[in-house]
Recover the amino acids of this structure.
């Protein structure tokens, strides 16, 4: 994964100021960036660009940094879906000329184009998914792919953005443009920042929003009523074009996570139809996933003679996950991704302490296929909630409702109301509002492909996204697009049932297993800052006590609290209290024996009937008369 820092000052800066800011930034980067990463440096006394990336590009044909003449292109991701004729420098020159080069890209992708030391342009993708954060302080505007080094560079310290953490608590990701670190924000969808250096030194920096999510969505929504076959043709063409684009950027086989569900099956069918059969990999923590994936591969072999590689593994196998304690697993994941990862990954094996210098294989993920199936829609019977109610209920589900602090919920509901209000203002209606929320919140900020170079999300091809908004809600509920395209591209798979979340139990580790109970109990004692107050502590202790006694509490409460507590340890160290083991002793203590009630109390059930009540009153009168 690449790292980029770029800064532009309104005036020249003393060398001591530049050195101090860089040292603060480099200290944080040194915790995650191996010394083997390749380094590129550009700049002067009023600007600078630093890019770090693995030295070995592996099978990738696209350079992270490329220079031709005065033009330098810094690619933040892969330009999947774009016209890459002429290579990175040609794409950079088109951006500098003002072209919307990102219109057809499959997010995430960002591009920084330098015209010597005179001009620059930085383009966010249309969904705003590429991890480029920005901030301003002391006349300096800076950009970085990691928010903590950016805050250190600009502000000299790192503090939590409490609004961002409130979103993370309830949604499982940082909402909108919010960041885990104060003084920084994510670049908006379609945002373009341009700068021009003045003759006497210093930069004039401007920002504008070009082609963005709203344009993609409305291009589909306004086309409602088109023939279904036309929509299918457009969706299929987008998937095929994505496969062909990746083949131009990567010279090896693609890996696809093949589950038993509908989304990965459609991508597999499109890759095979395009003549690019992938390697398959299946996580069989849920055994049904492995069974169906094996059957799909067998059918391919028998019907087409295709003998594809198929690897099966268990991502959450307890023996692998619990080999590293919960505290260390959490800290590594937070450090590697600068706090931006779902807490559900705490039940996966521990990540490496630093970014990998090994080239990663290109892979496809079926994320975003939910846009074509009404995944977040309310039940289609009875008194259904409004689209706004349904969208909020789905998004605000990272913790159970009873576990969230009331004030946090109210503020986050207001933020989501504003997002949905904007969707209505641009012309969306009915259940498409729910799909819009899923796209701009869950896919933009939660999807893990934003954190990994080479993980491609074909269902985010703008043509495919537009096609989903051209479908009616009924067509989505009926899975019309998936069913028709699989029948067209891989008819032999059409009758194989899909696996759903209710198909069977998972064998993956639980967050409280291993040292989980003791670790979370200690965090209840030590993490006392504002961030941990976003989750009701009694709810955490209740869930923990259930786990300690062999029960199955809702894992969301414990995972989210663990994430917030350890983030608080790092971002708000002044709020950390000494460890006492008091909570652990309390929740693991043997429950008191049930108190035996007097016979008269145990007979009170008699009064539950009218006759019994009359008899009870009569007996009581006679007893008192003695």
């Amino acid at each position: 994964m690449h790292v980029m820092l770029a800064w532009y000052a309104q005036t020249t800066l003393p060398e001591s100021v530049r050195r101090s800011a860089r040292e603060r930034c480099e200290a944080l980067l040194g915790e995650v960036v191996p010394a083997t990463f390749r380094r590129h440096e550009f700049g002067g006394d009023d600007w600078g660009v630093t890019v770090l990336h693995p030295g070995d590009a592996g099978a990738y044909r696209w350079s992270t940094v490329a220079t031709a003449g005065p033009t330098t292109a810094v690619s933040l991701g892969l330009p999947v879906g774009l016209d890459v004729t002429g290579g990175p420098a040609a794409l950079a020159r088109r951006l500098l000329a003002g072209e919307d080069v990102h219109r057809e890209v499959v997010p995430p992708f960002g591009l920084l184009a330098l015209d010597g030391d005179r001009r620059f342009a930085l383009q966010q993708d249309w969904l705003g998914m590429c991890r480029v954060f920005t901030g301003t302080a002391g006349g300096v505007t800076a950009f970085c792919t990691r928010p903590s080094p950016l805050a250190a560079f600009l502000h000299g310290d790192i503090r939590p953005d409490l609004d961002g953490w409130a979103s993370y608590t309830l949604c499982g990701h940082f909402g909108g443009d919010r960041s885990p670190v104060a003084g920084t924000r994510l670049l908006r969808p379609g945002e373009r920042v341009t700068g021009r250096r003045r003759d006497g030194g210093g930069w004039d920096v401007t920002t504008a929003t070009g082609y963005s999510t709203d344009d993609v969505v409305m291009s589909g929504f306004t086309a409602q009523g088109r023939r279904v076959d036309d929509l299918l043709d457009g969706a299929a063409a987008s998937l095929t074009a994505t496969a062909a684009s990746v083949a131009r950027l990567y010279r090896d086989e693609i890996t696809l996570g093949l589950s038993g569900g509908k989304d990965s099956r459609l991508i597999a069918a499109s890759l095979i139809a395009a003549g690019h059969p992938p390697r398959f990999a299946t996580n069989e923590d849920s055994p049904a996933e492995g069974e169906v994936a094996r059957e799909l591969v067998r059918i391919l072999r028998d019907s087409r003679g295709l003998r594809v590689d198929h690897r099966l593994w268990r991502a959450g196998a307890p023996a692998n996950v619990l080999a590293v304690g919960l505290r260390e697993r959490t800290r590594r994941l937070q450090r590697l991704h600068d706090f931006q990862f779902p807490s559900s990954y705490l039940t996966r094996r521990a990540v490496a302490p630093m970014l990998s210098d090994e080239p990663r294989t290109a892979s496809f993920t079926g994320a975003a296929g939910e846009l074509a199936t009404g995944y977040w829609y309310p039940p289609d019977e009875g008194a259904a909630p409004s689209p706004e109610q349904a969208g909020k209920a789905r998004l605000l589900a990272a913790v159970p409702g009873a576990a969230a602090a009331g004030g946090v919920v109210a503020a986050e509901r207001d933020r989501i109301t504003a997002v949905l209000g904007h969707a209505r203002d641009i012309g969306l209606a009915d259940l498409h509002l729910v799909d819009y929320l899923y796209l701009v919140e869950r896919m933009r900020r939660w999807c893990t492909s934003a954190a990994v170079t080479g993980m491609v999300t074909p269902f985010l091809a703008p043509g495919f996204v537009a096609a989903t908004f051209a479908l009616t809600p009924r067509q989505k509920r009926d899975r019309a697009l998936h069913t028709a395209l699989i029948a067209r591209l891989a008819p032999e798979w059409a009758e194989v049932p899909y696996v759903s979340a209710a198909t069977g139990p998972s064998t993956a580790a639980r967050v409280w297993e291993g040292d989980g109970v003791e670790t979370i109990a200690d965090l209840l004692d030590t993490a006392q800052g504002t961030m941990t107050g976003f989750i009701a502590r009694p709810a955490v202790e209740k869930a923990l006590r259930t786990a300690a006694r062999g029960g199955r509490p809702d894992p969301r409460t414990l995972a989210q609290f663990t994430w917030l507590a350890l983030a608080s340890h790092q971002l708000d160290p002044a709020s950390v209290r000494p460890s006492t083991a008091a909570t652990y002793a309390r929740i693991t203590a043997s429950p008191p024996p049930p108190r035996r009630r007097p016979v008269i109390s145990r007979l009170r059930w008699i009064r539950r009937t009218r006759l019994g009540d009359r008899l009870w009153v009569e007996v009581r009168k006679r007893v008192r008369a003695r």
The chain has a mean pLDDT of 91. The two ends are 88 Å apart (CA to CA).
